[in-house]
Design brief:
Elements lengths: L9 E5 L2 E2 L17 E7 L13 E7 L8 E6 L3 E11 L3 E10 L1 H6 L4 E16 L2 E15 L11 E16 L5 E13 L1
Parallel strand pairs: 1-4
Antiparallel strand pairs: 1-2, 3-4, 5-6, 6-7, 7-8, 8-9, 9-10, 10-11
């Protein structure tokens, strides 16, 4: 809650893609922090191009994959297991970065008879046309499932599943010292079952 507003009054953007609900059922963010290059939080006085956000805007920009060499990393902690790879497809011209996270809470909940799946895949492909123009394609896919129908010692026998799917194809151009443009074709949605 920002400035007293309801949770739905906040706007969450990932590479300009509006995320309708950027959290798993258990509250963890669907945005992989390993994929984030820059974060901007606006709590007042933001411009009207952010639509009907009333309380705040959380604007996340993802990293661009390394255009020269390959990198990979993996992490295992109490909450998540994650991996990330990045590198050139065509050196100095075309790169990819991809991150995957899987929640470790699903193993803990499985011991209580609760079927839970919480994972996300985030990737970005960048094509450098020339020094002033580039094309980015960002992709996010989230699976969130909680099934209490076989849970032990739980009175609630319910299940819920949602998938978040979002893509953005963006052309970025620099026209001069302080003039640039971004043209985007994007789609995002949450699918509930």
């Amino acid at each position: 809650h920002v400035r007293g507003g309801e949770g739905g009054e906040n706007l969450f953007l990932l590479d300009n893609i509006r995320l309708p609900f950027p959290f798993y059922f258990l509250g963890q963010s669907v945005i992989n922090p390993d994929m984030i290059e820059k974060t901007e939080v606006l709590t007042g006085g933001f411009s009207p191009n952010y639509g009907n956000a009333m309380s705040s805007v959380f604007n996340y920009s993802t990293k661009t994959g390394d255009l020269e060499q390959y990198h990979a990393s993996a992490d295992f902690n109490f909450l998540n297991a994650s991996a990330m790879v990045q590198g050139p497809i065509i050196k100095n011209r075309l790169s990819i970065i991809a991150g995957f996270r899987m929640s470790n809470l699903s193993w803990l909940l499985k011991g209580m008879g609760i079927d839970a799946v919480m994972n996300d895949v985030n990737s970005k492909i960048t094509y450098v046309i020339n020094d002033k123009n580039k094309i980015n394609f960002t992709f996010l896919n989230v699976t969130d499932k909680l099934d209490f129908t076989n849970a032990k010692n739980v009175d609630v026998k319910a299940k819920a599943t949602d998938h978040i799917n979002a893509e953005n194809l963006q052309l970025q151009s620099v026209w001069g010292g302080k003039i640039y443009s971004k043209f985007s074709l994007l789609q995002s949605g949450i699918y509930l079952k």
